[in-house]
Design brief:
single chain; mainly beta; seven-stranded mixed β-sheet; 15 strands; 13% helix; binds copper (II) ion
Length: 226
């Protein structure tokens, strides 16, 4: 093989290799859907304070998993699985809850735990828990075992009984959201995982912890403290 020919073969090998790597990366990324980072917006008037809004939907038609709901249009979902917040900062979180609900498996998850002040505001009313049977989803945030951090926050997101004033998002139609607000304070850099503890996922066994509760990026996500 002359030099120019071997150079050509090497170049083609590199291009093919790069393509294979890119394809491999795409397949991996598809298996662990990590959506576009949702940044907590830092306040211009209060230092070490930021605000971020998530939503919980009864289906995926709002569009976070793709047009017309993506591969599982009927699965419940959070609006984002990739929240990024600054270190040593008070995070003011708003969650717009569009879904119905029922009984959690343990009354612990009806209670507000680990927020600043130990409370949350539901449509402006300060609460420490929601009534039995009235939880739609929960926002439950904890350290991944081994990261050495102890941040733990769990907030029940109440059942949305609303039917009036329909909100259209993507190809979905939802009631006016129940607006849940609370805050917590971050420490140093770490990755935390949040998920829902209401058995909202459906499954063959009927225990509610399958499908959307098992597939990363529907009823779970990460909060990365940077
Ligand atoms: Cu849920």
């Amino acid at each position: 093989m002359d030099r120019s020919k071997s150079l050509g073969v090497a170049l083609v090998s590199v291009l093919l290799g790069g393509g294979a790597l890119a394809l491999g990366g795409f397949v991996l990324a598809s298996n662990t859907p990590h959506q576009k980072a949702l940044q907590c917006i830092e306040s211009s008037t209060h230092s070490h304070t930021c605000s971020v809004t998530l939503s919980t939907f009864p289906d995926s038609l709002e569009g976070v998993h793709g047009a017309n709901g993506g591969p599982h249009p009927d699965w419940v979902t959070y609006s984002n699985d990739n929240v990024v917040v600054p270190a040593n900062t008070t995070v003011n979180m708003t969650i717009d809850q569009y879904d119905t609900g029922g009984n959690v498996n343990n009354p612990f998850f009806d209670s507000v735990v680990g927020t600043n002040g130990g409370t949350a505001a539901v449509n402006g009313k300060v609460v420490t828990h929601v009534a039995l049977g009235d939880t739609g989803h929960t926002f439950t945030l904890r350290g991944i075992p081994g990261n050495g951090k102890t941040l733990f926050v769990s907030v029940p997101l109440p059942y949305n009984f609303g039917t009036k004033f329909p909100v259209r998002l993507g190809t979905g139609t939802y009631p006016k959201p129940v607006v849940v607000k609370f805050s917590f304070t971050t420490g140093g850099p770490a990755v935390y995982e949040f998920n829902c503890e209401f058995p909202c996922g459906g499954s063959r066994e009927g225990n509610g912890f399958g499908e959307a509760m098992q597939a990363f990026g529907y009823m779970s996500g990460t909060i990365t403290v940077k």
